[in-house]
What we know:
Elements: E1 5-7, H1 14-27, H2 36-43, H3 50-53, E2 54-58, E3 64-76, E4 79-88, H4 94-115, E5 121-128, H5 132-140, E6 144-155, E7 169-173, H6 179-189, E8 220-224, E9 232-242, E10 248-257, H7 266-280, E11 285-291, H8 295-303, E12 307-308, E13 313-320
Parallel strand pairs: 4-5, 10-11
Antiparallel strand pairs: 1-2, 2-3, 3-4, 5-13, 6-11, 6-12, 6-13, 7-8, 8-9, 9-10
Helix pairs in contact: 1-2, 4-5
Amino acid sequence: MSELAWRPVTPGDAAGVRELFLVVARTAPIGLETELAEVGGRLSSPRLDPQQDTLIGTDSSGRVVAYAECADMGVGNGRLRIRLTNVVHPEAGQHVNRRTHQWLLDRARQLHRQCRPDLPGVMGARCAATDDARLSVLTETGFEIAGWHRDLVRPTERSIPPAPAPEGVMITPFHPRYDQAAWRAHNEAHADMPGALLPDAENRPLHATGLPTFLPAASFLAFAGDPAGHDIAAFLFSLAQRDITGVREAALTCMGTRPQWRRRGLASALLTHSLAAYRDAGLGQVRLQVNGGNTAAVNLYDRYGFADSGRGYASLHLPFS
């Protein structure tokens, strides 16, 4: 491969970045977006300053063969969380992987100094289960595996009855009038998850409900009482996407329950409602990622017929100050 030209990403690179993401999704998947609209949304996120927070390498033909992104994921548990995304074409070589990784480390420390030097920081990264070369680069620089994420799939053709909601809880399809309340519930439900994005008003339009691939009819809200009160106990957000072979499928992109409503059967109720909606929408398969250490969630998905696709990845963390 020829010597690469390096520069920040631009909106015009979205198609090239998507092609790189598709290649990596087939060879060393880490849960990257593969729909052009989603990649475009990623590159235009308000949390990202493309000039400072991204780096791409292109070959002599202009093909994107490396993409690095350092993203401020907000404060959680008293730490500034910074996500490092390092995507390198398998033909590019380990030297490219090391170069982008070092750039990410330097940019993460700079971002920390710019944003919240008063707080400790933590960097997060992903590595495919089969990507030994990438894993070695991460561990050599102090990253440790925090957990494994499993990629689970399930055909939607098999009908199952909806699980009942707890007494006093009403489940309804998503409606835009509930968007603000839904995201308050989302951020409360995920506040104790170190790697979770906690969207604010600025970047919420580029996450789930604001994406053009969002499926409102297959996304559900569980209200604690009358929906007019906007008191959301749990939620499930779905997207439409294509798998690596181009087949349309549903993606259960986000589900959560506020702490005081956990262990009451809300996840089962939301999940069974969504499975029926996927089938009604003509989507033959649903895919999701789950932390392998979340035994309750893994058992839930196993109970409803989800199976491991073999496309899992590790989540790694590196605390720093």
